[in-house]
Amino acid sequence: MNAHTESVQILRDATGHPAFAVLPFASYQALIKGNPQSAPYIPAAVVDLAMDNGWSAARAWREHMGLTQAKVAHRMGITQGAYAQLEIKKTIRKSSREKIAAALALSEAQLDF
Question: pTM of the predicted model, to two decimals?
């Protein structure tokens, strides 16, 4: 997964290679104090899939990762049909969201949009 760089500006050298990163001062302070605090990263492609198709966050992530319902269900230890029922819901219970997040190797917050 890519690092979250939404509020960071990358300055490149003459050859086009990254040379410097310009970030908000609060982020800089958090980094030097050893407390980087950034929101969980959700790629625009995942949000676009969800919004353009009316999909749940879980389905958008699964499609983005190129996984089948059967594969995610197997990781969760449930049937594909049971997973399909979870995936069509726009909102799901916290415990189910945690299990789906673990199966997709995401944080729970990345499924909450």
Answer: 0.67
